[in-house]
Known about the structure:
Layout: H1 2-36, H2 42-46, E1 49-50, E2 55-56, H3 59-90, H4 95-108, H5 112-126, H6 133-157, H7 161-169, H8 174-203, H9 206-211, H10 231-240, H11 249-280
Antiparallel strand pairs: 1-2
Helix pairs in contact: 1-11, 3-6, 3-8, 4-6, 5-6, 6-8, 7-8, 8-11, 10-11
Amino acid sequence: MNKNIVEKAITWVIRGVTYFIVFVIGYIILDIIIHGLPAINWEFLTGFPRRSGAEGGILPAIVGTLALVIGTIIVALPLGMASAIYLSEYARQGRLTRMIRLAIVTLAGVPSIVFGLFGLGLFVLFFGFGASIIAGSLTLACMILPIIIVSSEEALKAVPQGLRDGSLALGATKWETIYKNVLPYSLSGMLTGSILGIGRAAGETAPILLTVAAFFLPKLPNSVFDQVMALPYHLYILATQHPEADKILPMQYGTALVLITLVLSVNLVAIILRIKVRRKYRW
Protein backbone atom coordinates (compact mmCIF):
# COMPACT_ATOMS: atom_id res chain seq x y z
CA MET A 1 0.00 0.00 0.00
CA ASN A 2 2.76 2.42 0.94
CA LYS A 3 4.65 1.55 -2.22
CA ASN A 4 1.62 2.37 -4.35
CA ILE A 5 1.19 5.73 -2.63
CA VAL A 6 4.86 6.60 -3.13
CA GLU A 7 4.69 5.47 -6.76
CA LYS A 8 1.63 7.64 -7.44
CA ALA A 9 3.18 10.62 -5.64
CA ILE A 10 6.38 10.39 -7.68
CA THR A 11 4.36 10.08 -10.89
CA TRP A 12 2.31 13.17 -10.08
CA VAL A 13 5.40 15.16 -9.08
CA ILE A 14 7.18 14.31 -12.32
CA ARG A 15 4.03 15.06 -14.30
CA GLY A 16 3.57 18.37 -12.49
CA VAL A 17 7.16 19.44 -13.14
CA THR A 18 6.79 18.55 -16.82
CA TYR A 19 3.55 20.50 -17.18
CA PHE A 20 5.07 23.46 -15.34
CA ILE A 21 8.07 23.58 -17.67
CA VAL A 22 5.82 23.33 -20.73
CA PHE A 23 3.60 26.09 -19.32
CA VAL A 24 6.54 28.43 -18.68
CA ILE A 25 8.03 27.88 -22.14
CA GLY A 26 4.61 28.26 -23.76
CA TYR A 27 3.96 31.49 -21.83
CA ILE A 28 7.29 32.98 -22.89
CA ILE A 29 6.75 32.10 -26.55
CA LEU A 30 3.14 33.33 -26.46
CA ASP A 31 4.19 36.62 -24.85
CA ILE A 32 6.83 37.19 -27.53
CA ILE A 33 4.33 36.38 -30.28
CA ILE A 34 1.63 38.68 -28.88
CA HIS A 35 3.97 41.66 -28.44
CA GLY A 36 6.22 40.98 -31.44
CA LEU A 37 3.72 40.11 -34.15
CA PRO A 38 2.42 43.71 -34.56
CA ALA A 39 5.98 44.83 -35.38
CA ILE A 40 6.42 42.24 -38.14
CA ASN A 41 5.86 43.63 -41.62
CA TRP A 42 7.61 43.65 -44.97
CA GLU A 43 9.63 46.76 -44.18
CA PHE A 44 10.75 45.33 -40.84
CA LEU A 45 12.00 42.12 -42.45
CA THR A 46 13.56 43.57 -45.60
CA GLY A 47 14.54 47.11 -44.61
CA PHE A 48 17.76 48.55 -43.22
CA PRO A 49 17.94 50.00 -39.69
CA ARG A 50 17.70 53.73 -39.07
CA ARG A 51 18.35 55.93 -36.02
CA SER A 52 20.63 53.31 -34.43
CA GLY A 53 18.02 50.61 -34.80
CA ALA A 54 15.11 52.58 -33.35
CA GLU A 55 13.43 52.60 -36.76
CA GLY A 56 13.58 50.68 -40.01
CA GLY A 57 14.19 46.99 -40.50
CA ILE A 58 16.54 44.22 -39.43
CA LEU A 59 17.56 42.70 -42.78
CA PRO A 60 21.33 43.05 -42.12
CA ALA A 61 20.91 41.28 -38.76
CA ILE A 62 18.94 38.43 -40.35
CA VAL A 63 21.49 37.98 -43.13
CA GLY A 64 24.38 38.19 -40.66
CA THR A 65 22.84 35.57 -38.37
CA LEU A 66 22.19 33.21 -41.30
CA ALA A 67 25.76 33.67 -42.52
CA LEU A 68 27.13 32.82 -39.07
CA VAL A 69 24.90 29.76 -38.72
CA ILE A 70 25.81 28.45 -42.18
CA GLY A 71 29.52 29.06 -41.57
CA THR A 72 29.31 27.31 -38.21
CA ILE A 73 27.57 24.28 -39.75
CA ILE A 74 30.16 24.02 -42.54
CA VAL A 75 33.02 23.97 -40.03
CA ALA A 76 31.56 22.16 -37.01
CA LEU A 77 29.56 19.29 -38.53
CA PRO A 78 32.36 17.58 -40.52
CA LEU A 79 34.94 18.07 -37.76
CA GLY A 80 32.60 16.97 -34.98
CA MET A 81 31.35 13.86 -36.75
CA ALA A 82 34.85 12.91 -37.94
CA SER A 83 36.21 13.25 -34.40
CA ALA A 84 33.37 11.10 -33.04
CA ILE A 85 34.02 8.41 -35.67
CA TYR A 86 37.72 8.35 -34.80
CA LEU A 87 37.15 8.15 -31.04
CA SER A 88 34.48 5.47 -31.36
CA GLU A 89 35.80 3.31 -34.20
CA TYR A 90 39.52 3.87 -34.65
CA ALA A 91 41.11 5.12 -31.41
CA ARG A 92 42.66 2.58 -29.06
CA GLN A 93 40.58 2.59 -25.90
CA GLY A 94 42.95 3.48 -23.06
CA ARG A 95 43.91 6.18 -20.61
CA LEU A 96 44.70 8.75 -23.29
CA THR A 97 41.33 8.26 -24.98
CA ARG A 98 39.54 8.60 -21.65
CA MET A 99 41.40 11.83 -20.95
CA ILE A 100 40.43 13.18 -24.38
CA ARG A 101 36.78 12.34 -23.73
CA LEU A 102 36.95 14.03 -20.32
CA ALA A 103 38.44 17.15 -21.90
CA ILE A 104 35.67 17.22 -24.53
CA VAL A 105 32.93 16.88 -21.92
CA THR A 106 34.58 19.62 -19.85
CA LEU A 107 34.72 21.95 -22.86
CA ALA A 108 30.98 21.46 -23.39
CA GLY A 109 30.37 23.20 -20.06
CA VAL A 110 32.74 26.13 -20.57
CA PRO A 111 30.90 29.52 -20.55
CA SER A 112 30.39 31.02 -23.98
CA ILE A 113 32.24 34.23 -23.05
CA VAL A 114 35.41 32.14 -22.64
CA PHE A 115 35.04 30.90 -26.21
CA GLY A 116 34.53 34.52 -27.23
CA LEU A 117 37.84 35.52 -25.65
CA PHE A 118 39.50 32.50 -27.24
CA GLY A 119 38.17 33.50 -30.67
CA LEU A 120 39.24 37.10 -30.13
CA GLY A 121 42.80 36.08 -29.32
CA LEU A 122 43.21 33.35 -31.94
CA PHE A 123 41.09 34.19 -34.97
CA VAL A 124 40.69 37.97 -34.70
CA LEU A 125 44.17 38.92 -33.52
CA PHE A 126 46.62 36.03 -34.10
CA PHE A 127 45.37 34.94 -37.53
CA GLY A 128 44.45 38.51 -38.43
CA PHE A 129 40.89 37.81 -39.59
CA GLY A 130 39.63 40.84 -37.68
CA ALA A 131 36.02 41.15 -36.62
CA SER A 132 34.51 39.10 -39.44
CA ILE A 133 32.11 36.34 -40.38
CA ILE A 134 34.90 33.79 -40.60
CA ALA A 135 36.20 34.65 -37.12
CA GLY A 136 32.71 34.48 -35.63
CA SER A 137 31.85 31.21 -37.41
CA LEU A 138 35.08 29.54 -36.31
CA THR A 139 34.50 30.67 -32.72
CA LEU A 140 30.93 29.35 -32.69
CA ALA A 141 32.14 26.11 -34.31
CA CYS A 142 34.67 25.63 -31.50
CA MET A 143 31.91 26.23 -28.96
CA ILE A 144 29.51 23.59 -30.31
CA LEU A 145 32.12 21.01 -31.32
CA PRO A 146 32.07 19.25 -27.90
CA ILE A 147 28.28 18.89 -28.06
CA ILE A 148 28.41 17.39 -31.55
CA ILE A 149 31.29 15.05 -30.69
CA VAL A 150 29.72 13.68 -27.50
CA SER A 151 26.26 13.14 -29.00
CA SER A 152 27.66 11.66 -32.22
CA GLU A 153 29.88 9.24 -30.34
CA GLU A 154 26.94 8.06 -28.22
CA ALA A 155 24.91 7.50 -31.39
CA LEU A 156 27.75 5.44 -32.88
CA LYS A 157 28.05 3.34 -29.74
CA ALA A 158 24.32 2.57 -29.88
CA VAL A 159 24.77 0.62 -33.14
CA PRO A 160 25.05 -3.12 -32.29
CA GLN A 161 28.55 -4.54 -32.51
CA GLY A 162 27.16 -7.44 -34.52
CA LEU A 163 26.69 -5.21 -37.55
CA ARG A 164 30.38 -4.40 -37.51
CA ASP A 165 31.51 -7.99 -36.92
CA GLY A 166 29.29 -9.36 -39.67
CA SER A 167 30.56 -6.82 -42.19
CA LEU A 168 34.20 -7.46 -41.32
CA ALA A 169 33.64 -11.22 -41.47
CA LEU A 170 32.37 -10.87 -45.03
CA GLY A 171 35.61 -9.17 -46.07
CA ALA A 172 34.67 -5.49 -45.87
CA THR A 173 37.33 -3.01 -44.83
CA LYS A 174 37.09 -0.94 -41.67
CA TRP A 175 35.92 2.17 -43.53
CA GLU A 176 33.42 0.22 -45.66
CA THR A 177 31.95 -1.20 -42.47
CA ILE A 178 31.65 2.23 -40.90
CA TYR A 179 30.32 3.91 -44.04
CA LYS A 180 27.74 1.27 -45.00
CA ASN A 181 26.84 -0.48 -41.73
CA VAL A 182 27.37 2.00 -38.91
CA LEU A 183 26.81 5.56 -40.16
CA PRO A 184 23.39 4.97 -41.78
CA TYR A 185 21.97 3.67 -38.49
CA SER A 186 23.63 6.27 -36.26
CA LEU A 187 23.06 9.33 -38.46
CA SER A 188 19.70 10.21 -36.89
CA GLY A 189 21.26 10.31 -33.43
CA MET A 190 24.20 12.31 -34.69
CA LEU A 191 21.82 14.86 -36.21
CA THR A 192 20.04 15.19 -32.87
CA GLY A 193 23.20 16.43 -31.18
CA SER A 194 23.92 18.68 -34.12
CA ILE A 195 20.48 20.26 -33.77
CA LEU A 196 21.21 21.16 -30.15
CA GLY A 197 24.56 22.65 -31.04
CA ILE A 198 23.28 24.65 -34.01
CA GLY A 199 20.39 26.03 -31.95
CA ARG A 200 22.82 27.16 -29.27
CA ALA A 201 25.13 28.78 -31.81
CA ALA A 202 22.30 30.73 -33.45
CA GLY A 203 21.21 32.31 -30.18
CA GLU A 204 24.58 33.07 -28.57
CA THR A 205 25.64 36.66 -27.92
CA ALA A 206 28.94 36.58 -26.02
CA PRO A 207 31.13 34.86 -28.68
CA ILE A 208 29.95 37.06 -31.55
CA LEU A 209 30.19 40.18 -29.37
CA LEU A 210 33.99 39.84 -29.41
CA THR A 211 34.55 38.40 -32.87
CA VAL A 212 32.06 39.67 -35.45
CA ALA A 213 28.96 41.53 -34.29
CA ALA A 214 28.31 45.21 -34.92
CA PHE A 215 25.25 46.96 -33.53
CA PHE A 216 24.58 49.46 -36.31
CA LEU A 217 25.83 48.44 -39.74
CA PRO A 218 23.13 49.24 -42.33
CA LYS A 219 24.60 47.23 -45.20
CA LEU A 220 24.93 43.61 -46.25
CA PRO A 221 28.27 41.74 -46.13
CA ASN A 222 30.27 41.26 -49.32
CA SER A 223 32.66 38.55 -48.10
CA VAL A 224 33.43 36.29 -45.13
CA PHE A 225 35.92 38.89 -43.91
CA ASP A 226 33.23 41.54 -43.33
CA GLN A 227 31.76 42.48 -39.99
CA VAL A 228 28.00 41.94 -39.71
CA MET A 229 25.02 42.60 -37.53
CA ALA A 230 23.45 39.62 -35.72
CA LEU A 231 20.02 39.17 -34.19
CA PRO A 232 21.13 38.14 -30.65
CA TYR A 233 23.50 41.07 -30.25
CA HIS A 234 21.05 43.48 -31.91
CA LEU A 235 18.35 42.41 -29.46
CA TYR A 236 20.74 42.76 -26.51
CA ILE A 237 21.60 46.35 -27.44
CA LEU A 238 17.99 47.31 -28.13
CA ALA A 239 16.87 45.97 -24.76
CA THR A 240 19.72 47.14 -22.51
CA GLN A 241 21.99 49.74 -24.11
CA HIS A 242 19.85 51.78 -26.48
CA PRO A 243 19.03 55.30 -25.21
CA GLU A 244 15.39 54.82 -26.28
CA ALA A 245 15.03 51.29 -24.92
CA ASP A 246 11.74 52.05 -23.14
CA LYS A 247 10.21 53.50 -26.31
CA ILE A 248 11.09 50.73 -28.79
CA LEU A 249 9.56 47.68 -27.12
CA PRO A 250 7.86 46.59 -30.39
CA MET A 251 11.28 46.53 -32.09
CA GLN A 252 12.67 44.42 -29.26
CA TYR A 253 9.83 41.91 -29.32
CA GLY A 254 9.80 41.81 -33.11
CA THR A 255 13.52 41.05 -33.20
CA ALA A 256 13.08 38.35 -30.54
CA LEU A 257 10.26 36.76 -32.55
CA VAL A 258 12.34 36.71 -35.73
CA LEU A 259 15.28 35.17 -33.84
CA ILE A 260 13.11 32.43 -32.33
CA THR A 261 11.52 31.73 -35.72
CA LEU A 262 14.96 31.50 -37.33
CA VAL A 263 16.27 29.07 -34.70
CA LEU A 264 13.13 26.94 -34.87
CA SER A 265 13.30 26.88 -38.68
CA VAL A 266 16.90 25.66 -38.66
CA ASN A 267 15.99 23.01 -36.10
CA LEU A 268 12.89 22.00 -38.06
CA VAL A 269 14.94 21.36 -41.20
CA ALA A 270 17.37 19.20 -39.23
CA ILE A 271 14.51 17.33 -37.53
CA ILE A 272 12.87 16.55 -40.89
CA LEU A 273 16.19 15.19 -42.19
CA ARG A 274 16.57 13.11 -39.04
CA ILE A 275 13.07 11.63 -39.40
CA LYS A 276 13.69 10.71 -43.04
CA VAL A 277 16.97 9.01 -42.15
CA ARG A 278 15.36 7.16 -39.24
CA ARG A 279 12.52 5.86 -41.44
CA LYS A 280 14.94 4.70 -44.13
CA TYR A 281 17.26 2.83 -41.78
CA ARG A 282 15.63 0.76 -39.05
CA TRP A 283 17.27 -1.89 -36.90
